[in-house]
Every structure is written in structure tokens, then in C-alpha cells.
Design brief:
38% of the residues lie in helices and 28% in strands. It is α/β, with parallel strands linked by helices. Helix 3 packs across helix 4, helix 4 crosses helix 5 and helix 8 packs across helix 11. Bound molecules: adenosine-5'-triphosphate (ATP) and magnesium ion.
């Protein structure tokens, strides 16, 4: 997607956060455009939550610029709050309340009056597929339904931007899928979503992504742009009945530079290899391997986002 003609809904420029001597967020810049789902990916402790909290005006940055919906967040955090929704990583719902009571509580906290609250609750229940479950006790909900309820609470006040911090952590694949369908419904209604996740299948569903590691963005763009920018060369997939010996041989060949391999990963019963200049090198890898172990097949494959993520983290 080219966004050159659009104005970003939110952006950060050279954003930095230090805790004492420790730099948790280091020179982070990104732009998120209208109607996008923007994915923020990174390992534990890489600075995702810290970045979100700064974007929301909940944590002052050490330096840098933040703009959400045209508002300078560092100066005017109070002005953006009515227009953004936040589902925090450790979102809190009141277990002893029903679904309806939880929504009433959050809606009131967002400052909705009685009439707009009633309307908002009907809309949120419908959108989230919770209609009919209003009077269920929150403590009896499964993880997937809790997540949907937490998301409903975050968009009750009809925000233009949603910040979701690992919203589907610990939820089964089917519930995650329906949560994402709900996100697509929201962006169809003009909402823009900033989401952190550890799940690669979810990342593949984002319009654009940024990878963050140790507080710095190391790759960004659409899935295809990231694949092209991070990985040089081609990915080969090898299947062999002797995976252990093959891996050992390949690692030695990479270390001693006797084969043009730049990265080796095990994916289930397959080995993924990054090599330069495939046409010449596939044959070279094939011939060398054939003389050493039995190979079932070897072929060029399109790298997955997981391949790219792991390669870029190294
Ligand atoms: N208030 C704080 N004081 C000191 N260090 C902090 C504080 N908050 C966060 N950190 C540190 O900053 C780094 C980034 O933390 P952050 O919570 O942003 O990571 P994250 O990417 O959200 O991780 P996770 O995937 O585990 O949620 C971590 O090393 C964390 O320990
Ligand atoms: Mg976090």
C-alpha cells in the first residue's frame, strides 16, 4: 500500500524513553495511516508497551515527538483521550460484575452520559457478538470472550484509534481468528488500529508492521517490503530423514564458509536455509549434501514472516 498521498493518523519521531541509564525505547519513528492495522512486533522486553503508553500520553518520553489525530500528545494528552481506545496488556475487567455492568462501568469512566451509554452498549455488544450474554458473570467467561469484552469496553466511546497491547495473548487460534474478524469490522467503520502481537499469523494480517528489538526499530513496511529488505538471497527448504546430521553439516559449512549459507532454522521436520544467488548455489548445496546425507527434497520457497522475524532478530 502506498500512503504517500495520505496524512498519518498517528506518528512518532525519534521517540526515546530512558529509565535511569537504561534506554527502553531508542529513536523510534513510525507513521500509521487511516484505516490501517499497524502491527508492532518484538520479543519480550523490546519496548512495545512503553511505546504504547507514551503514544497515549500515559508516560512522558525522554525526547522525541508524538502526534495522534493531529494533536501533540506531549503537550495535550488530555485532548486525545476521548478519541482513542486502549486495551492494555493486563486489561482489567471486574470479575464480580456481569458483562453489562462492566461495560456500564467503562462507559461511565469514558464520560458517556446515560443515553449515549445505552446506545454505545447496544452497538458494542452487537459488534462483539456478545448480545444475549449481557447478564453473564465476567468470571465465568472463557479467555476468548473476556478478550472480546475488553475490546468492546475499549471502543464503547467510539474512538477513532485503538491501541491494543497483545490483545490475543493466550487465546486459542479459533478465538484469535474471530477477534481479528472483529478488528476488520472496526476498520471498515473507519477505526485505525495499532496492535502489538507475538503471533506471526496475526502479523501477516496487518497492513503494515514494524519490528522492534532492544528498543530500536530494525525493519518496517508491508509484509512484502519487510521480506525483501531483511532477507538477502533465497530461502531453500530441505527435508531429510537425518535432520540432526544435516543441520550439523550445514552449520559447519556456514561457519567455515564452504557453502554460501547465511542462516539456518529448523521448521518442524524441515530445514530452512538462506543462500545467496540461488540458481548456482542450490546445485552446490545439493551436490555437497548428497555426498553426505540422504535428502528427500530441496526446493526454493517464499520465506514466511517468521523466517524474516527470526533472521532479523539475529
Ligand atoms: N517503569 C519502568 N522502570 C524501569 N524499567 C522499565 C519500566 N517499564 C519498562 N521497563 C523496562 O523497559 C523494557 C521494555 O519494557 P516493555 O514493557 O515496553 O517491553 P514489551 O516489549 O512490552 O515486552 P512484553 O512483550 O514482555 O510485554 C524492559 O526491559 C522493561 O524491564
Ligand atoms: Mg508489553
Amino acid at each position: 500500500m502506498t500512503n504517500n498521498h495520505k496524512k498519518p493518523v498517528l506518528f512518532s519521531k525519534n521517540l526515546e524513553k530512558k529509565f535511569g541509564d537504561f534506554t527502553a525505547v531508542d529513536n523510534v519513528s513510525f507513521e500509521v495511516y487511516p484505516g490501517e492495522i499497524f502491527g508492532f512486533l518484538g520479543p519480550n522486553g523490546s519496548g512495545k508497551t512503553t511505546t504504547i503508553r507514551m503514544m497515549l500520553g500515559l508516560l512522558p518520553p525522554t525526547s522525541g515527538t508524538i502526534n495522534v489525530l493531529g494533536i501533540d500528545v506531549i503537550k495535550d494528552a488530555d485532548l486525545i483521550r476521548p478519541n482513542v481506545g486502549y486495551m492494555s496488556q493486563k486489561f482489567s475487567l471486574y470479575n464480580d460484575l456481569t458483562i453489562l455492568q462492566n461495560l456500564r462501568f467503562y462507559g461511565t469512566a469514558y464520560g458517556l452520559d446515560k443515553n449515549s451509554l445505552d446506545e454505545a452498549i447496544v452497538r458494542a455488544l452487537d459488534m462483539a457478538g456478545l448480545t444475549g450474554k449481557e447478564n453473564s458473570q465476567t468470571k465465568n467467561l472463557s479467555g476468548g470472550w473476556r478478550q472480546r469484552l475488553a475490546l468492546s469496553a475499549a471502543f464503547l466511546h467510539n474512538p477513532k484509534v485503538l491501541f491494543l497491547d497483545e490483545p490475543t495473548a493466550g487465546v486459542d487460534p479459533v478465538s484469535r481468528r474471530s477477534f481479528w474478524n472483529l478488528l476488520y469490522k472496526l476498520i471498515a467503520h473507519g477505526v485505525t488500529v495499532f496492535v502489538t502481537t507475538h503471533y506471526m499469523d496475526e502479523a501477516e494480517h496487518c497492513h503494515r508492521l514494524a519490528f522492534i528489538q532492544n528498543g530500536s526499530i530494525i525493519a518496517g513496511g508491508t509484509v512484502d517490503e519487510i521480506k525483501n529488505s531483511v532477507l538477502e538471497g533465497q530461502m531453500l527448504e530441505i527435508s531429510t530423514s537425518n535432520i540432526y546430521e544435516t543441520i550439523k553439516y550445514l552449520r559447519t559449512s556456514m561457519r567455515e564458509k564452504t557453502l554460501p549459507i547465511t542462516n539456518i532454522e529448523i521448521f518442524g521436520s524441515m530445514i530452512h536455509l538462506m543462500v545467496h544467488e540461488p540458481s548456482k548455489n542450490i546445485n552446490q548445496v545439493k551436490i555437497k549434501l548428497a555426498g553426505f546425507v540422504e535428502i528427500d527434497h530441496i526446493s526454493i520457497i517464499e520465506p514466511t514472516l517468521e523466517d524474516v522475524f527470526i533472521a532479523s532478530m539475529q
